[in-house]
Amino acid sequence: MNLELTETQTLIRDTARKVARERVAPQARAADREERFSPELFKELAELGLMGVNLPSRFGGSEAGVVAYSLAVMELSAACASTSVAMAVTNMCGELINAFGTEAQKEKFLPRLTSGEAVVGAFALSEPHAGSDPGALHTTAVRQGDSWVLNGSKQWITSGAYAGVMVVWARTSGTGNKGLSAFIVEGGTKGLHVGKHEDKMGLRGSNTVGLTFEDCRIPADQLLGKEGEGFKLAMVALDGGRIGIASQACGVARAALEASVRYTKDRKAFNQPVSEFQGPRFMMADMKVQIAAAELLTFRAATLKEQGKPFTREASMAKLFASEMANRVCDKAVQLHGGYGYIDEFPVERYYRDARVQTIYEGTSEVQRMVIARETFKLFS
Fold first, then answer.
1. Averaged in consecutive runs of 10 residues, what is the pLDDT profile of the chain (381 residues)?
2. Which terminal residue of the chain has fewer beta carbons within 10 Å of its beta carbon, N or C?
3. Closest CA to 298 of 99, 71, 55, 64
4. Whole-number pLDDT of residue 1
5. Residue 55: per-residue pLDDT
6. Catalytic residue among 214, 362, 366, 375, which?
7. What's the Enzyme Commission number for this chain (predicted)?
8. Does domain 7-120 correspond to CATH entry 3.30.70.920?
9. Structural domain boundaries of the chain?
10. What is the DSSP string of 17-62?
11. Are 151 and 144 in contact (CB under 8 A)?
12. Other CB atoms within 10 A of residue 44 CB
């Protein structure tokens, strides 16, 4: 693992940092308060190559690798986690299509994601009664001639109301994890209905909806991968997605620490800046150590994935540690701000709310511990 960034990685990081500070951060508070999703913003990110960081250049991607992708997510998350999660899911969908799609599927759908034509991508796996257990999903797909017909419901779908390209899981046969298949569904397809926008605790600038499929007919050639291998595709996508969430957690935590440093330097108590007291200084020292540790775990997982090596355990370790770290750091940031940390005039209350979901989506902390334990026992079997 080389801790020195390459020229390409530095370029992606600096590009993401610039747009995050100049374009994303200024609208973050309003997006949160008004639950505002901005399609125009994601088209701008696409123009900068951030909607396909790890996708081949022939499909409009930046072809910059997984570490560069992680860096980009961190920078955007420090400005607005709502923006970064939609960007991350789009990249995840693109990577899945690139890994398992036919050449025709890649040529048709990847340029739409990388160019911003599709606005964003969506990942439709969870259902009202199937979250941590994909094998419990009820959505079905039945082959009828040259089509697949989908029926069922999905829940907690990020960007579901705006996504032009979605990867959707449905049961084609069997029970449990067997018999699941993945499909590419275009936004606006007849029979696809978008549910209400969820009124969330955090990530309020991110669109989250339920989806209903009622005799939703798609071409047979939009089966992604092989029939019955959907569970495998989901696990591959989630492994990579956990690197994205770990990166998001690092970015949000870093923003919370930076806000705390600024505030405690300006705020005075007992005739001196709060930053001069040992208690707050020690708190921020601990915050910095935890962020640095999470970043290293995240870069380790990203490096392994980039090298084509197994990274399941490392991705879960990064996601578990970084997400729980972000919750601790944001909690400390609110505490350091005192009463001001509890009002929306200061950004740390938004960071606190945004961080909370990071221990839940892309696999809860409990699921990560199951994965880590399973992979650890394999080492000694």
1. 90 98 98 96 98 98 98 98 98 98 98 98 96 93 98 98 98 93 98 96 98 98 97 96 98 98 97 97 98 98 97 98 98 98 97 98 96 94 72
2. C
3. 71
4. 66
5. 98
6. 362
7. 1.3.8.10
8. no
9. 7-120, 123-228, 231-379
10. HHHIIIIIHHHHHHHHHHT---HHHHHHHHHTTTTSTTS-GGGT--
11. no
12. 15
Q: Give the pLDDT score at 212.
A: 98
Q: What CATH superfamily is the domain 231-379?
A: Butyryl-CoA Dehydrogenase, subunit A, domain 3 (1.20.140.10)
pLDDT value for 379: 87
Amino acid making up residue 271: N
- 362 in active site: yes
Instruction: Indicate the residue type of 280.
Output: P
In 261-273, which positions are buried (b, 16+ CB within 10 angstroms) versus exposed (e)? bebbeeeeeeeee
CA separation for the pair 179, 168 (Å, rounded): 14
